[in-house]
Amino acid sequence: MELNIQKLLDLYFDGKTTTHQDKQLRTYFLGNTIKEEWLPYKSLFVGFQSSMNEKYIQPIDLPKKRGYSFWWASAAIIAFLIIGGNLYKPTHSYTEQEAHESYAEFKENVLLVSSHLNLGADRVAHLETFNKTTTKYLKKE
């Protein structure tokens, strides 16, 4: 029996025991006759047994559901958007001359950005040519 208990303890601490083997260990260590070298393990199994008998007896107070808060919040958001959209009015109306000036300025800026992008594209084209010529001379494995 002692050899069996040692094997069961080894399996237990490796996490490889079955439910039946756990029950055998529990009954052995909860009994009265235990070998002296295994006395430290008795407190472990006694602690497990006492924790199995513990029960939580205080009531759990869960918060009550409030189903209307979502609807009220969504209704308030929609009302805010409708009222806010109607209250906003542009303060400055542009004349035709100002609109043409703004368009000309925008066109100038877009052309500037375009020229920089074209310059970058030309530089990338040189890299493509370099890549084609270098792959001719590299050995393919």
Essential attributes:
141 residues, 5 helices, elongated, mainly alpha, 0% strand
Structural summary, described in words:
- The chain has 141 residues and is mainly alpha-helical.
- The chain has a domain at 2-52.
- It is 72% helix and 0% strand.
- The protein contains five helices and no strands.
Secondary structure topology:
Elements: H1 2-14, H2 19-30, H3 39-52, H4 68-87, H5 96-137
Short note summarizing the structure:
The protein is built from 5 helices and no strands.
Measured as a percent range, the helix fraction is over 70%
Measure the end-to-end span.
Answer: 68 Å
Topology order in helix (H) and strand (E) letters = HHHHH
Oligomeric description of these chains: single chain
Structural class: mainly alpha
Mean pLDDT: 81
Kindly provide the radius of gyration, computed on alpha-carbon positions and rounded to a whole number of angstroms.
41 Å
Task: Note the total helix count.
Answer: 5
Number of strands: 0
What spatial form do the alpha-carbon principal axes imply? elongated
Largest sheet: none
